[in-house]
Amino acid sequence: MQTAAPPMLKPTLIAGVITGVVASIPVLGGIAMLLCCSPVIGCGFLAAYLYSKDCRGTGEPFRAGRGALVGWVSGLWFTITVSVIGIVLKLLMSSGDPFGDALEQMERSPGMTPEGMEIAEKVVDFLQNTPMIVLFLIGLVFYLILTSIFATIGGAIGGAVFKV
Question: Which tens digits make up the pLDDT trace of 31-49?
Fold first, then answer.
């Protein structure tokens, strides 16, 4: 007798939001993201674990392929969570011109060459003249691609570990 697969919404949403919140903690999340995108891989892995428990309860098979799918979906939730928290934090902590501040720090850097400074000034000029919504959308697409890849890997690993 074939049973219906349990819904993916709850485990993927839980995994995406929890790991997205952890990754959004300014210092902790930054360090964790530097460690091979561990929050994103963990997001897919956690989603696979939660979904495997649901599959075990219904008697539905759970393998790496389905784990990859669950990981991918949880990566979408992760991206949404991190983006929303990032917007809120930027609105709360926005002060002055972040691109201009970065340029000033580069000017004070002892290893900055005149050629490097010229390139940095052109990049900052471009960023300052580009609408923030465009920069946000470009960043969102880039981030969505990366999180989809790494969360899918985490889900596939979870699917292999927690197979039913």
Answer: 766 777 788 999 999 999 9
